[in-house]
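ugh ok fine here u go
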Amino acid sequence: MMFDPVPPYQPSHFRVKFAIAPWERRACAALRRQVFCVEQGLFVDDDRDAVDAHAIPICALSTLGGEADAVVGTVRIHAVPERPGEWWGSRLAVAKPFRSAAALGTGLIRLAVSAAHARGCACFLAHVQEGNAPLFERLNWTSLALLDLHGRPHRLMQADLAAYPPVLDPKHGVVMIRRAA
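structure:
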């Protein structure tokens, strides 16, 4: 008798929230290293920089039985103290096996901008890799300039804050449901 192999587990739900627990923060850093150092080769050993000292990390968690299982996406946000109201998002990364779940990148972007909006953001900016710009444009972002960062084409982009209502409880976050293929 032949049995079909069991397909790999695919979570049906993801939670996008501020990375609060130490294990969430460590997993966000590890995912960033995997994506930006190993896969893309943008940085040699680590992508951490001075922004990490005051940035707020956001994570996308896969769930198993309703409980957080693993960090499968991340982004960070931060205010610019010398320019009140200006916030930035950066280091958006999704684990390779989960990149087909477009809702993850969208959920991370939405929570990033909406959480900053709730904290007094008047202008939200990001340097976006050229290949990801169409996603941001679909999410109500405008391209302001083309530039080269780390040897790759990027766009300086700005979010339309009217499309991002403030989220007052990003520590608990939002649940994203994976759509059937």
